[in-house]
Design a protein that fits this description.
By secondary structure, the chain is α/β, with parallel strands linked by helices. It contains 7 helices and 5 strands. Helix 2 links the parallel strand 1 and strand 2.
Length: 176
């Protein structure tokens, strides 16, 4: 999240897909006139609204938190956002191509998408695979007990993740 915050340049509107409690939007509130957060969880959105109102009551009108599913169309007009953030979300989405296409649709020309997913080819994950174990790419807590990797339905290497954004939708600039 610290790297994401450093990469975000000022603009008119920003969208955080999978905004959770709205923390990232609050961190960059002074860089944008309008800040939008979309999340599938009503309870996380309520937390985002309450925390934002408590911390920044005079800025509350800049924030718009909406319930939405990243597997459906985004409820925004074309070319609306200067920046889109999508951190640790894409690996949970069924139709990743549709999501990337939607991001491209609502992004202004020359806008910026900052996206991140776990890298299954990360060295420690490769070692796990060599030892016959499925690597844990999400929360390490109780993974063996619950038997699943945080709801991840897609796994990516850096090359495949860049390819996802470079198949005609967005041209990728990779930050390592």
């Amino acid at each position: 999240y610290a790297i994401t915050e450093q990469l975000i340049e000022p603009g008119e509107r920003i969208l955080d897909i999978g905004c959770g409690n709205g923390n990232m939007l609050r961190k960059v509130k002074d860089r944008y006139q309008e800040l939008y957060g979309v999340d599938i969880s009503p309870s996380r959105l309520e937390e985002a609204k309450k925390t934002t109102k408590d911390l920044y009551p005079s800025d509350i009108l800049k924030f718009k938190f909406l319930e939405g599913n990243a597997d459906t169309s985004l409820p925004f007009q074309d070319n609306y956002f200067d920046t889109i953030i999508c951190i640790a979300i894409i690996e949970h989405v069924y139709d990743i191509f549709s999501l990337v296409k939607e991001m491209y649709r609502v992004l202004k020309p020359n806008g910026c998408v900052i996206a991140q997913v776990p890298n299954i080819a990360y060295f420690k994950h490769r070692i796990s695979l060599l030892l016959g174990k499925l690597p844990v790419t999400s929360s390490p807590y109780n993974w063996e007990e619950i038997g699943w990797d945080g709801g991840h339905i897609h796994y990516f290497t850096m090359n495949k993740f860049c390819w996802l954004f470079d198949v005609g939708y967005l041209k990728v600039k990779v930050f390592k």
